[in-house]
UniProtKB/TrEMBL annotation, chain B:
It holds the Pfam family ABC_tran. InterPro entries: AAA+_ATPase (IPR003593), ABC_transporter-like_ATP-bd (IPR003439), ABC_transporter-like_CS (IPR017871), P-loop_NTPase (IPR027417). GO terms for molecular function: ATP binding; ATP hydrolysis activity. Belongs to the ABC transporter superfamily. This is ABC transporter ATP-binding protein. Keywords: ATP-binding, Nucleotide-binding, Transport.
Length: 220, 286
């Protein structure tokens, strides 16, 4: 079985790479780099809080592009093939992952060194946003018959992240500054969010042995 | 004839709506037609049998494989070709590349053998000449044939076709009938359709569904026979008829319980279908 899967994955590399949402990823990553590099365009010395906020916005922009990753116009045509969904989704994620790492490195390097936030902590935030975007897309696919949920998921993400920044109670605050005493606590919550999103995404990608009840709401 | 697909007690609810209500059926080799009005549960039944959506209750087997386990579901999918109601494509793929992509997903990993198989199915659906053309440049009928080729690739023993002739012009429909008839030779085909003439021309068995349940299962001749003595001609629409319409000759064709001395006509499969759905909101394509 594993040998078959490995051969299928090898054979799928080329066609699946052709099905990736290149336009959405290109727009998200270009916008992200533009946001991350904005402090270098300013004449005045950049403010650390501004740099952190722009880096967070850059991660969100990239996440919006990632929300299109599971769009599959051929979803219904390929609904009953023996190659399992986790394999197909995993391949898409694996194909994008190196690009995401390179993109994030570039985004970090665009931020002036003296105002760059702690790399580990801010990378955790970016990873959580990326995984959240993918998990939201996976849930949308699992709970509906929609073949291309990218637009709806990215719109939801675009609303949810600023809403989270504005509406979360102080003790659950996620978007704090580096000098804020809640910085470490906030990153414990970011780590928790990352884990929850990863588990939710993994559960959504698994082949359905039974329907999730929410699917009744989304059924055509 | 030994059944190749058996289902018992399939039940599926969407919220308060019963999409499948304790459906049991047995399919044998050849083309079986699935008729029913919109919302009858035809697509849901096909999706369940194609393992695209799990049922809430009930069980079924396809060619001896039980999809209730992970391994069984994969075995069913290896034996299955599925053409959904609204097939989607990667529009920038050529017809060949798309069917090849589906062939890989069906675990045909040997490149040479796979390409031979893709050429075979594209030839079978008469698309060899346009196999390098991008799907977005193909007509609706050609795209439907690409989807059929994708369903046929790997020579599945059970073919599930959900309204494959919708939106096709009469010539394309005729061509599709030929293809489905060919596909039914040596394999089990379940064909959902609104076209009673498709069933009359293609199918050796027919199942009529309404409100999630099976209302009839038998041969097209048996379904037609249900209307024997219940179709009559009159100069005006008979108010007692279940359905009635003016024909091209100016007389009315009525279906239902005829009055005494009525001028009885030979029934068609559509008449039998309408009477089977008596009391149900029937929709028959023109």
């Amino acid at each position: 079985m594993r040998a078959v899967t490995a051969r299928v994955v090898r054979a799928l590399l080329r066609p699946v790479s052709r099905t990736l949402p290149r336009r959405a990823l290109a727009v998200g990553s270009a916008l992200g780099l533009l946001l991350a590099g904005t402090p270098r365009l300013l004449s005045s010395p950049p403010d650390p809080w501004l740099c952190l906020s722009l880096l967070r916005a850059a991660a969100l922009a990239f996440g919006l592009g990632l929300a299109f990753l599971l769009d599959d116009p051929a979803r219904h045509t390929t609904a009953a093939v023996p190659t399992r969904r986790p394999v197909r989704v995993g391949l898409r994620v694996a194909l994008v992952a190196p690009f995401a790492v390179v993109w994030w490195t570039a985004a970090l390097l665009l931020v002036p060194g003296e105002t760059r936030p702690p790399v580990g902590a801010v990378t955790l935030e970016a990873a959580a946003v990326a995984v959240l975007a993918l998990a939201a897309a996976a849930v949308a696919v699992r709970c509906s018959d929609v073949a291309e949920p990218g637009v709806a998921v990215s719109a939801g993400l675009l609303l949810a992240v600023p809403a989270g920044a504005l509406l979360l109670p102080e003790r659950w605050e996620l978007f704090v500054s580096v000098t804020d005493p809640r910085w470490d606590g906030a990153h414990d919550r970011w780590a928790g969010l990352l884990v929850v999103a990863a588990v939710l995404g993994a559960c959504s990608v698994a082949e359905p042995r039974q329907r999730w009840r929410i699917s009744s709401l989304a059924h055509r | 004839m030994t059944p190749t697909v058996s289902a018992s007690g399939l039940t599926l609810r969407y919220g308060g709506t019963v999409a499948l209500d304790d459906v049991s059926l047995r399919l044998t080799e050849g083309v079986t037609g699935l008729l029913g009005p919109n919302g009858a549960g035809k697509t849901t039944l096909l999706r369940v049998l194609a393992t695209a959506v799990p049922a809430d209750r009930g069980a079924f087997t396809v060619l001896g494989h039980d999809p209730s386990t992970t391994a069984g579901r994969l075995d069913v999918r290896r034996a299955l070709g599925y053409l959904p109601q609204t097939p989607g494509f990667h529009q920038d793929f050529s017809a060949f590349a798309f069917v090849d992509y589906v062939a890989i997903l069906k675990e045909l990993t040997d490149r040479g053998a796979r390409h031979r198989e893709v050429r075979r199915v594209l030839d079978a659906v008469d698309l060899s000449d346009v196999r390098s053309k991008r799907i977005k440049r193909l007509s609706g009928g050609m795209r439907q044939r690409v989807a059929l080729a994708a369903a046929l690739v790997g020579d599945p023993g059970f073919l599930v076709l959900d309204e494959p002739t919708v939106g096709l012009d009469p010539e394309q429909r005729m061509r599709f009938r030929e293809l489905i008839a060919q596909a039914g030779e040596g394999r089990t085909v379940l064909l959902s359709t609104h076209q009673t003439e498709d069933v009359a021309m293609l199918c050796h068995r027919v199942i009529v569904m309404a409100r999630g349940g099976v209302r009839f299962e038998g041969t097209p001749a048996e379904l037609t026979a249900r209307a024997a003595g219940r179709v009559w001609s009159s100069t005006e629409r008979d108010p007692g008829a279940r359905a009635g319409w003016r024909t091209g000759t100016g007389s009315f064709r009525n279906v239902g319980d005829p009055p005494e001395g009525a001028d009885l006509l030979d029934p068609t499969l559509e008449d039998g279908y309408l009477l089977t759905l008596d009391g149900e909101p029937a929709e028959v394509a023109a």
